[in-house]
């Protein structure tokens, strides 16, 4: 994959704001849930950069290999909590909006597990990762996690 454009160089002020918003939203919910949402949306959007990045981050935060590997089949896997299932269902419903507005069942599950404030936070998180997916896929971005971790 060849990077077409570096959005951080092209629009540094806006990208700094976008990054700040992303971090604030991600910090508003439990880290394990946020990483599952990021990975699942990135799988749906076929964003290799974000799948790579967030699986590394999930592992670093204690996520198991089993739960990462089973994420694309979460409905059939017994290792996710009801809260995680609700978040994953909502993630899929919003990420796939263009396929039709059939999100009522997902919203019912969401309401059962998340407060209204948490529903907004999760919806913002889903929007943020979908935005990052579009930036990464659109501009051919790739962050090699090993050098990035070493630099941090």
UniProtKB/TrEMBL annotation:
Residues 12-93 form the Carboxymuconolactone decarboxylase-like domain. It holds the Pfam family CMD. InterPro entries: AhpD-like (IPR029032), AhpD_core (IPR004675), CMD-like (IPR003779). Coiled coil: none annotated. PANTHER family: 4-CARBOXYMUCONOLACTONE DECARBOXYLASE FAMILY PROTEIN (AFU_ORTHOLOGUE AFUA_6G11590), CYTOPLASMIC PROTEIN. This is Carboxymuconolactone decarboxylase family protein. It comes from Sphingomonas colocasiae. The lineage of its organism: Bacteria, Pseudomonadati, Pseudomonadota, Alphaproteobacteria, Sphingomonadales.
